[in-house]
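Task: complex structure prediction.
Instruction: return structure tokens for all chains below.
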Amino acid sequence: MISAPEAAPDFPVIQVRKLAKKFCTRLRTSLWYGLRDIVAEAWPWSRPRTASLREHEFWSLQDVSFELRRGEALAIVGANGAGKSTLLKLLNGLIKPDGGTIRLRGQVGALIELGVGLDPVLSGRENIFVRAALFGFSRTQVNPVFSQIEEFAGLGDAIDMPVQFYSSGMVARLAYAVAIHLRPDILLVDEVLAVGDMDFQRKCINHMLAYLAAGGSVVLVSHNPYHIQAVCQRGILLEHGRVAFAGSGLETLDRYFAQQHQLPATRGTGPTTGRPVVIEALTMTGEATPAVVAGGPLRLRVDYQAQQAYEAVGWAFYIWTNDGLTCITGGLRLEPVRLAAGQHQLCCTVPQLPLTAGQYVVKVAIFELHSQQPLALLGWEDAPVPLQVQGELTLEKSFQTMLQQLVTIPVKWGDEQLGVH
Amino acid sequence: MREIIYNSHSPLASPRAFGRAVGLDARTVLRVGRQLFVRNLIVQYRQSVLGYLWLLLPPLVLALTWTLLSKANILQGEKPAVPLPLFILTGIFLWQAFVETLNSPLQQLTSVRHTLAKVRVPHEAFVAAGMGVVVFNLLVRLAVLGAVMWWYGVGWHLTLLWVPLGLGALLALGLGIGWLVALLGLLYNDVANALTLGINLWFLVTPVVYVLPGRYAALLNLNPVTPLLLTTRNWLLSGQAAPSPGFWMVAALASFGSLLGWLAYRLAQPHLIARF
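Output:
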């Protein structure tokens, strides 16, 4: 780590250039490499061997570049193992890059696993001072903001209770309250809001927006589209340690979901041993055309493979918003259906699809009626199937798009003018 | 607002910047370490019935055991100039301080390993806090030792003024080795296991509970703890001002070693975290 003199005022607060980090897949080899790297640190004139991979090593991050200015929030999106947490650790200065450079201008605060560093035996009040001390703040510096921390955490009398008796949500409240009231210039947030309740999440999002408006900068790692949409103007999508896409927060989310939806192509090709029923495909079309049109019919076909016959099963499909957060509608068949052994289909038709034009996702479940236990699922633990609903370009549709309206309902408008005489 | 740059180069490639960073951190470490020390003191015995009595119980039991063994003539050798229980108790208190210092960095850093992997905090602050507890424990034991000296009617000598120097050298030696042990021990668990075994053997080849036998004096003096412990005990009990052979050399090396160990740990820190 090097401290350089103050930079120009318009200089980005975070500047990452061709960042690379490698890890080793084998623990003992990794320890041995670690020892060699430590010895190499003591001899700075030796030729750095960081550019190449040693045996059993892989690039966790490679050629990652981006910038972030004051008042901006950047979302880092990607599947598990894409390198998001490694990137945050590098930005936080916990680990060293193996290539490239990170330039940070300002004090960095990190919200990574909120409960870490809190002493379970100490009370919430005592932990506030200890945690602040860990970030380099003395008791006299904390005293003026103590009441604000206490108020934001909203723990009431529990503030004097040992932290070991706190719920995970209470721990999150306390840790978040301390971290944000120490006023860092750059805030790194790693999937930590999920543990709090809705009220706390709303509070945090509002706080982050106020913090951004006051000139702070946020780097947010999250799988929650609502948090990303609410906070981040910009985003980058990481794929196998590389930047696969960089754009606005919404564009990055769209690209991420599109990437997730490509996964069903491999569905049904894996081993099916041990699974009694496998859903191999879900096909959705219009009545006579492949396109599904708003207000038109929707034909739904589920291709399944069953190891044995089942006499009484039920099945259901559910249509969700494209971000997977809200289930809009669906169909549930509770009359017993016979599932024949081998490769077969289940079909149904929605005569008039009430959805407005746009992108949706669909999930399917087949379950035993008497136990109500699922026999096969599609889109619940794996990626759901995308549904594109088309519509004509009309004034009504542009209103629907503007308002993010999801469904249309038949309305009978009255012709008479009602009034009081 | 200063700019911080992270890259793959060794911090030693820019020695001035490295020195400045160490200097800045040293101030933070002392401040944070003090707060963590207070926390350690509170937490240490909060879930305990006997509480701070645990500071004294283990060394007292150990001293009593060795005194009984010596009185039963199981240990053959020269008798000390001061009462045997006092001689043994002093030796064990000093040895205990050395061992606690040696163990402290690895113990402290291992206990907060998970925090260090997730939160950017000065690692040295935890070690400083641990050292605070070691010094606190030592002071309590020295107060008890003072009472025992009074009980046996051992006179106060001017050499007592030199005792802090001897204790400082003993702790510096422990800390220097402790940094190295922490560096390796955070990578390999073998180090912690070997340390337990090593310390037990080390205790036996250090004149803690026996008088340095003339026949093996040259050999036992190769043990760096020997001159530091003997000199400090003499300054405490007998008033003999002249330090044991090798005292000044070991004290100088220990001071330099503790600084070097700290710098080595700083260089190793990101590589250790990457493997937590």
